[in-house]
Amino acid sequence: MSRLCDYSAVLNKGAVPPPFEQVEVSPVVARFGQFVLDNQERIIRHWLTVVDRSPEVPASEDLTYRQLLDHLPELCLELGALLKRPDAPAIRDQAARDGSAHGRKRWQQGYNLAQLIREVCLIRDDVLDVWLDVFMRDNVSLASESKTGIRKLVIRFFDDLIIESTVQFASEQMAEMQVMHEALLEAETAAHSAKTEVLRHVSHSLREPLGAINFAAEALTGEEALSSDGQSNVRIILRNLKVEAQNVNELLTAAELSLRPGGRPQASR
Q1: 24 and 116: one domain?
Q2: Are 101 and 53 spatial neighbours (Cβ–Cβ below 8 Å)?
Q3: pLDDT tens for each residue of 186-213
Q4: Does 268 fall in a domain?
Q5: How many C-beta atoms lie closer than 10 Å to residue 125's C-beta?
Q6: 11, 36, 39, 37: which is closest to 25 by C-alpha?
Q7: pTM reported for the whole predicted model
């Protein structure tokens, strides 16, 4: 069943006021709602032209006709239906869902938040400044109070649309930022792991030969066959090994500091 048929069923039912609001259904407002429904295709085409030609919505220039159309037919239908039945919560709820879907789609299509809001304002102004005037010219006998009542409902509809689409747009943007944040954390963790592995390898590569040389020099100190000059040279080697080992330890400690949060080296084991 089409959306129009669904709303027709709602429009033909007895009025059931929503719990948050009591709205008196005006015959004139309902006639304008029917005017919107009867001229839906013309109105939507004009909306698209207004948005596409606006320099304030540059993202629309990169969209095809169908992409720019998005949920506008449903929103136009819901505007007309609400004007006929302002007291129908089912229509308001569906308009809220379509408003959210429109905000999500425009975010995916590359709009920024200012462009999304501007687009809705352009469409609202088109309804009030163009189509309401066309309706009033065809109904010259209507009092100016009727036009005021229609304007209030139209503005309320588009205010709700701006709120719903903006909230959804912001939610999509926040979700994307969260994904980016998690990706950066993963990259940072991977980089830290890679640096830690390099440091472990360097530590092993530097300390292993020093340990072997120190072991051999220590063994030579007890070698009675060595001359006094030889013994002296061994002691020089050991002293230099001690200095070299200290330098390596300081270098590795400084490198480890750069890898640890807060700049605190890991306790030696």
Answers
A1: yes
A2: no
A3: 877 777 677 777 767 766 666 667 676 7
A4: no
A5: 12
A6: 11
A7: 0.60
